Amino acid sequence: MPSCSLLLCLLYLSCIIPRNHGDTGPEEEHCTGRTKYDIKENARFLLYDVNPGEGFNLRRDVYMRVANLVHHLNEREPWVLVLPPWVRMWHWKSRDVDQDRLKWSEFFDVGSLGKHVPVIELGDYIKKRAPIIDEVYHLQGVVDVTDWDTIMIDRCQRDTRFQQDAQGKWRHWYFGIEEIYAEKFNCLSFFGQLSLMATFLAENTTGKLIFLPRAENLLHGEYGEHSSLFWKARRSMMYAKPLRDAGDRFRREHLGSDDVTDNTVLRDWTTVKSQPRQAVGGAYIAVHLRRGDHLHVRGRELPSIKEAAKHVKKLLKKLALDKVFVATDGTEEEYQEFRNYLKKHQVHQFQPTRQEVGIYKDGGVAIIDQWIACHARYFIGSSGSTVSFRIREDREILGFEQSTTFNRFCGDEESDCEQPAHWTIVY
Fold first, then answer.
1. Residue whose C-alpha is closest to residue 208's, from 40, 32, 43, 85
2. Are residues 6 and 99 in the same domain?
3. Given 12, 39, 228, 264, which is the most exposed site by the fewest CB atoms within 10 A?
4. Cβ-based burial of 230 (10 A; exposed 0-12, middle 13-18, buried ≥19)
5. Residue at 270 is within a domain
6. Could you list the active site residues?
């Protein structure tokens, strides 16, 4: 064990000495995942990455796939999920804010993640172990899909940006951490269940740290009534407390909303075995009004600002409400236009100061938006939006009636558009 101060040594020992899962204590906040899992001495580690072009909320979905892959691996031997740092994404517009290599704890309660599978931040892993990846399996689709459950080491279908240097080490961007390199590299064609990937990793790899780039090629393994594992991963993704606190403060000050009044008090998800749909929500409608690039991709399925406001006005009258919360990636002009159409009503938006953006980062601001939206009496989202999808999941976790959750705006030319499928929580 390396030399350290007495305090650091005690913290280190508290993280590695096994204890009963039922034991809890304040020191567990310092140990990633300590509330349920210990990182065992013989554990192996799985790191992953996602296509750089993917957005924040899609990356959250990929996390759940990889977490459940690690869940399957732990049925065979101890594995730990290494959390890749968040790097600046194209839709994080605050250029004067440092948003490179952010830890997961900026956005999520890492202790809660660790109640589902053992996890560790990449930076913490590197501090404890050498920054060497033993084996890389660059995931790609199967060119000729003839069978479900196909997996094989294959030729690379496109340039992977991995390069082997003169010493035989595989170099790559690796989240901008220069000292990382890999000993072995392969492309892996895959189409199938997570359990198939778990079998491959357990039976065909021996390294301590395995890296799966392009993990969006993994698929959720369970659906419908068999999706309790998906929902365990999803429920474990508690937002970081400072972000929840900021959202709760906004709800109290601007929307007259709090958890006791709204019947949305959140319990430890590991103790919840069923949830009656008794959430009332704050006395406001929450709107996710997707604009930006989505207008080019799904323009026919999105309303004009005028039609969106007209629909919200009808809902306010129907539900006898007067307040609207707007989450949108639209411009300030679009937001003001929406407000002008609803002059007789209170329309609110979370607009952080520059200092708050520096604290919460763009990803945190997005989470605060979603946290406020998911507590509304009624929610209406945008077609095909992962943001709307995540808000609906949060409302399922909180116990809202589905009729108040699974709603979307119709495009101006859609007379009676199809509403979102009910992705119902399973315990």
1. 43
2. no
3. 228
4. buried
5. yes
6. 54
In three-state secondary structure terms, 145 is: coil
Domain match, 16 and 38 both? no
Nearest to 93 by CA among 298, 365, 334: 365
- pLDDT at position 7 is 30
Find the Cα–Cα–Cα–Cα dihedral 270, 276, 281, 285, rounded to 10°.
Answer: 110
Residue 323 belongs to domain spanning: 243-404
Same-domain status, 269 and 363: yes
Cα 46 from Cα 201, distance rounded (Å): 10
Check whether residue 39 and residue 126 sit in a common domain. Answer: yes
Whether residue 238 is contained in a domain is answered as: no
Which stretches in the chain have pLDDT values below 50? 1-36
Q: How many domains does the chain have?
A: 3
β-pairing verdict for 323-328 and 346-348: parallel
Asked if residue 401 lies in contact with residue 263, where contact means CB atoms within 8 angstroms, the answer is no
Please indicate, yes or no, if residue 293 is contained in any of the structural domains: yes
Looking at residue 226, its pLDDT comes to 59
User: What is the pLDDT, as a whole number, of residue 88?
Assistant: 85
Predicted TM-score (pTM) of this structure: 0.88
Who contacts 9 (Cβ-Cβ below 8 Å, separation ≥6)?
1
The pLDDT value given to residue 209 = 98
Is 300 in a helix, a strand, or coil? Answer: helix
Structure token pair of residue 33: 């995942």
pLDDT of residue 222: 64
Under the phi-then-psi rule, with left for phi > 0, alpha for psi from -120 to 50, and beta for the rest, what region is 348? beta
- 131 and 49 assigned to the same domain: yes
- At 237 the pLDDT is 97
**Order of strands across the sheet with 209-212?**
119-121, 79-83, 44-48, 209-212, 135-140, 185-191, 150-154
